[in-house]
Design a protein that fits this description.
Layout (H helix, E strand, L loop, with lengths): L2 H5 L8 E6 L15 H14 L3 E4 L4 H12 L5 E7 L2 H9 L4 E7 L2 H7 L5 H18 L3 E7 L6 H14 L3 E6 L16 H11 L4 E6 L6 H12 L5 E6 L13 H12 L11 H12 L16 E2 L2 H9 L17 E2 L7 H12 L5 H16 L8 H10 L4
Helix pairs in contact: 2-3, 2-11, 6-7, 8-9, 12-13, 13-14
The structure holds zinc ion.
Length: about 400
């Protein structure tokens, strides 16, 4: 059965989405996370294999510089970009680390501008970013993205001037940064935080060559806002970059998850370039967890250990007959696996199935009931976690089944 033909790919896109992963920049800015240069290089290698086409890096500390060098030496298909503030030292530093591409970050909302430069006029602020872009693009021939920090709270008249000024200075792409996650995916939501409205206004009223969305998850809308930007770009922009992090790691509530955006693009919109690459998603998630110390919640979509776990009677009964009853797609598609666990909510069907699986014998109805009553007792004692295999085996031996 071709699952995708049956249930997915009813939609298509008239724009090319490009994943610009920032796990190694925004992601590791999450409090308490760190990654060694060797592990950063392995993460970059796997991101590249999964179909990420641009990878954003830090390059300030010695370990970041070492990671940047190792990643450049891998000669990946993905482009490698260094993150800079709008100051020459940062751009010089990126050049000395071998970057041919940089992202220059600069606030665009008055909340940020007034807090950071209370005495500067709008013109002085524009000059500041234009100088940095010209220095990188014109003087040093770098490809330049400009990140409009806090775009979703910016005054549009100022932001429009800002985008045109950086485009004139040589920037090829403008990043809409939903810095505090207040963007809305509703096409009716107006500027500054209506994401579709902004994607369209930038096309209609500025001359920048391409755009990018960078969404934070403070309202839990980061993936939806990223997808909304991509949908709004369809038929309007020839391509759109999506700045995401694996597992959504990042500042505060984090970012849009790379794996979720990729799977939405592949399954719902039929974006073919991810074909055959999605089975690496779980592997990379587990590697990042190990490398950074980030603990993946078990129920995390796609890559959580329990993303395909079934325990309740109705669900396991259904899954034993046809896994599609309670799974949207086979776990192997994302490199995950199905887990049928035994616990508080287990019913006869799964217990019988597990006994057969572990002993190779078909138990009598009485034996199944005896096992179930032992399980029930354990949970009456306040137990919460599912049973480990050895615990289940012990119960089987107690009722003479092993
Ligand atoms: Zn961010």
């Amino acid at each position: 059965m071709n699952l995708k033909e049956l249930y997915f790919n009813r939609l298509s896109l008239k724009t090319e989405p490009i994943i610009d992963d920032t796990t190694l920049r925004d992601g590791v800015q999450m409090p308490g996370l760190a990654v060694s240069p060797e592990d950063a290089a392995e993460i970059a290698r796997l991101l590249d294999k999964i179909g990420v086409e641009r990878i954003e890096l830090h390059h300030y500390q010695e370990s970041d510089k070492k990671a940047a060098k190792m990643i450049h030496d891998l000669n990946l298909s993905a482009r490698i970009a260094g993150w800079c503030r709008a100051v020459k030292e940062d751009i010089d530093d990126a050049i000395s680390c071998g970057f041919e591409e940089v992202g220059i970050s600069h606030p665009v909302s008055y909340i940020h501008l007034r807090a950071k430069w209370p005495d500067k006029t709008d013109e002085e602020l524009l000059e500041r970013v234009v100088d940095a872009v010209e220095y990188a693009a014109r003087d040093h021939g770098l490809r330049v993205f400009v990140h409009g920090e806090d775009s979703t709270r910016a005054d549009w008249e100022f932001e429009k001037k800002f985008i045109n000024a950086v485009a004139d200075a040589g920037a090829e792409c403008y990043r809409i940064c939903d810095t505090v996650g207040i963007g809305l995916s509703d096409p009716a939501a107006p500027l500054p935080n209506g994401i579709p409205a902004k994607v369209k206004a930038i096309k209609a009223e500025t001359k920048i060559e391409s755009i990018e969305i960078h969404a934070h998850d403070d309202f839990g809308n980061a993936v939806e806002n990223t997808m909304a930007a991509i949908r709004a770009a369809s038929g309007v922009w020839d391509k759109i970059y999506a700045s995401t992090t694996f597992l959504g790691i990042g500042e505060r509530a984090g970012n849009a998850e790379t794996e979720k955006v990729i799977l939405n693009l592949y399954m719902h919109y039929g974006v073919k370039k991810y074909e055959g690459k999605t089975p690496l998603l779980k592997k990379l998630a587990d590697f990042i967890s190990k490398a950074t110390g980030y603990k993946i919640p078990p129920n995390k979509a796609i890559v959580g250990d329990y993303a395909f776990a079934h325990e309740s009677g109705i669900h396991t009964h259904g899954v034993l007959r046809n896994p599609l009853t309670y799974e949207p797609y086979p776990p192997e598609l994302v490199g995950n696996k199905r887990r049928l666990t035994i616990g508080k909510h287990s019913g006869r069907a799964i217990v019988k199935h597990k006994i057969q699986e572990l002993t190779g014998r078909t138990p009598s109805e009485e034996q199944v009931l005896a096992v179930l009553s032992k399980i029930k007792k354990i949970y009456e004692g306040g137990r919460k976690a599912s049973l480990r295999e050895e615990e289940f085996r012990r119960i089987l031996s107690e009722v003479g089944l092993s």
